């Protein structure tokens, strides 16, 4: 009989048991690893118990397994998956898969199961915020009443406001420097939450609502493009194609043919839906990948440039400097 986990804590513990990871307490975090098989990777867990957790995962699945869950908790989870995918089935919904991308989801009362494949490698960073952090800590200390109803529960938004991605990258840099102290951790969590609140309260037409609803896009003084549900699915497919082919992305014309959407509507709709043009999205994703490689590998600047899609290292350095106000080498030396 399959065991059913009933909380996020039980879910993590069940995954760790399958991975044969044991906790090794460090100064600012807990390292989860299989001491007998360190080549299988690890997970770093930064936590304020009862309130939130920040995890950085980089591990390989040693054998296939499934977990069933029935979790009444309400949680906010968001982050970025750089590599890896899983299949999951929520009750009364079709089987879905989670692939590399940014994500945001408010979970409540979820039931279903999730499956992992042997040899699949996972690399990503995730923040989990428990309801008590919002209803107790933020309400009591900042007089904040967060409106959960501004989001669709148990629906994964496949995109985060750019500012949150930047904060998560900073948290990983601090972790690599062993400098992500409880104070830094708290400040980053608060800043992420401030961006989420500002995003949804500034306008009903925001980064999150645009990911679930379609409408019309203004492309001139009195000219609009109307987006159908089919158009939105094509735009989401374009996002997936670009994410999976960042080293050599298709041209706008080729992309429009792949997703069956004319180039004008694709460009306008993508900018509307993801709050940035396709070119800027590609650059943003390349720079995020470059930062991750600078922080986690010893690859040369030229090798990193090639991996993120720049055949000429000079062009990569120029764009990196424009984005981060320093060269890739200077960025790498900051963490030393």
TrEMBL record:
InterPro entries: Homeodomain-like_sf, HTH_AraC, HTH_AraC-typ_CS, PchR_regulatory_protein, Tscrpt_reg_AraC-type_HTH
SMART domains: HTH_ARAC
Record keywords: DNA-binding, Transcription, Transcription regulation
Pfam families from the UniProt entry: HTH_18
Superkingdom, taxonomy of origin: Bacteria
This protein's record includes keyword Ribonucleoprotein: no
Span of domain HTH araC/xylS-type: 236-334
Keyword ATP-binding: no
PROSITE patterns: HTH_ARAC_FAMILY_1, HTH_ARAC_FAMILY_2
GO-annotated molecular function: DNA-binding transcription factor activity; sequence-specific DNA binding
PANTHER family registered for this protein in UniProt: REGULATORY PROTEIN PCHR
Record's protein name: AraC-type DNA-binding protein
Originating species: Anaerosporobacter mobilis DSM 15930
């Amino acid at each position: 009989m399959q065991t059913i986990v009933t909380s996020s804590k039980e879910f993590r513990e069940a995954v760790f048991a399958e991975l044969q990871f044991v906790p090794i307490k460090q100064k600012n975090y807990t390292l989860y690893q299989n001491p007998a098989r360190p080549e299988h990777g690890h997970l770093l867990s930064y936590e304020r118990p009862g309130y939130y957790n920040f995890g950085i995962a980089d591990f390989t699945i040693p054998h296939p397994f499934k977990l069933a869950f029935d979790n009444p908790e309400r949680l906010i989870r968001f982050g970025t998956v750089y590599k890896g995918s899983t299949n999951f089935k929520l009750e009364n919904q079709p089987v879905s898969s989670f692939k590399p991308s940014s994500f945001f989801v408010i979970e409540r009362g979820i039931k279903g199961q999730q499956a992992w494949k042997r040899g699949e490698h996972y690399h990503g960073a995730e923040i989990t915020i428990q309801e008590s952090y919002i209803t107790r800590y933020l309400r009591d200390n900042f007089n904040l009443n967060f409106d959960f109803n501004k989001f669709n529960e148990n629906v994964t938004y496949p995109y985060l406001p750019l500012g949150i991605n930047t904060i998560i990258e900073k948290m990983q840099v601090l972790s690599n420097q062993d400098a992500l102290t409880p104070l830094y951790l708290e400040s980053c969590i608060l800043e992420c939450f401030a961006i989420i609140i500002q995003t949804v309260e500034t306008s009903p037409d925001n980064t999150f609502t645009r990911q679930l609803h379609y409408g019309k896009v203004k492309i001139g003084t009195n000219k609009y493009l109307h987006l159908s549900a089919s158009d939105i699915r094509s735009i989401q497919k374009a996002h997936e194609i670009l994410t999976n082919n960042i080293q050599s992305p298709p041209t706008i014309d080729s992309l429009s043919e792949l997703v069956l959407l004319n180039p004008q509507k694709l460009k306008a709709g993508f900018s509307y839906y993801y709050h940035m043009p396709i070119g800027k999205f590609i650059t943003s994703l390349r720079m995020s990948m470059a930062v991750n490689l600078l922080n986690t590998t010893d690859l040369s600047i030229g090798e990193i440039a090639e991996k993120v899609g720049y055949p000429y290292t000079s062009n990569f350095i120029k764009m990196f400097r424009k984005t981060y106000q320093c060269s890739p080498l200077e960025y790498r030396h900051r963490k030393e």
